[in-house]
């Protein structure tokens, strides 16, 4: 879908006006606010953890196993591996066909940025899930080995009160190094994966929601046809992401909307830089700064980030409420 070039975007007059000034203020203000949220909450999270403060006194700590463990104990981690493998293959094949059909200029669209991000999310998640399954298998193998060892030695070493016949304290034989690995705080990969998840969720809601509710119903572009690849680009990412949300154990804190805002702001600045040097079509009409109401459109899209991100926050809270009540012994997600 190409739009006609309304004005020459390489001329100074296109940029040196009150419309661009207001739009720049909206974008830069959003980026500063997002950066402040990251500095405040991510920094306080790390510093309070180092001082040994409780989890209630700081933002929620991400556990090491949340990136690969399903939210219910009855669901084996291998099931999440299979789901992420299928989702990754579908997304990668769809993206490859789309690029082959339309070329590299496809990445002028925010939709393809988001689709690529979701593909990376599932590829990264697949690797973490495979690694988690290996940890899960090792932990179970280690536990089974020590259980059999305790049974064999039970006739010789009394286990009551955790002491032997000489009064010496016995080592806990059911402990396994891999068991403690799962309860540790997540490292860089775990936090990066959660951030990818939260950016993807907000961006998918924004792109698919705007396309099906605003752009598609009011399309007036000549010779525009709704192709199969276009439908896939604006629906498949949402479907697989909702499926992953239903299965995973990842939290969804509000303050991480900051990364979603920075993601969109980076795309807008990328478009500004491209159009400042090359006079080409705008991928979305609301980005065209020659329109009189361009600042209003920019402000509206900026404000839409709140409900788009909030929809997934609400979905995760509803999921927690329903599953924690229906499966209280099996549910293993701590919001």
TrEMBL record:
<feature type="transmembrane region" description="Helical">
    <location>
        <begin position="107"/>
        <end position="128"/>
    </location>
</feature>
<feature type="transmembrane region" description="Helical">
    <location>
        <begin position="191"/>
        <end position="214"/>
    </location>
</feature>
<feature type="transmembrane region" description="Helical">
    <location>
        <begin position="226"/>
        <end position="247"/>
    </location>
</feature>
<keyword id="KW-1133">Transmembrane helix</keyword>
<feature type="transmembrane region" description="Helical">
    <location>
        <begin position="259"/>
        <end position="284"/>
    </location>
</feature>
<feature type="transmembrane region" description="Helical">
    <location>
        <begin position="78"/>
        <end position="101"/>
    </location>
</feature>
<feature type="transmembrane region" description="Helical">
    <location>
        <begin position="18"/>
        <end position="39"/>
    </location>
</feature>
<protein>
    <submittedName>
        <fullName>Uncharacterized protein LOC111386302</fullName>
    </submittedName>
</protein>
<feature type="transmembrane region" description="Helical">
    <location>
        <begin position="296"/>
        <end position="316"/>
    </location>
</feature>
<keyword id="KW-0472">Membrane</keyword>
<keyword id="KW-0812">Transmembrane</keyword>
<dbReference type="GO" id="GO:0016020">
    <property type="term" value="C:membrane"/>
</dbReference>
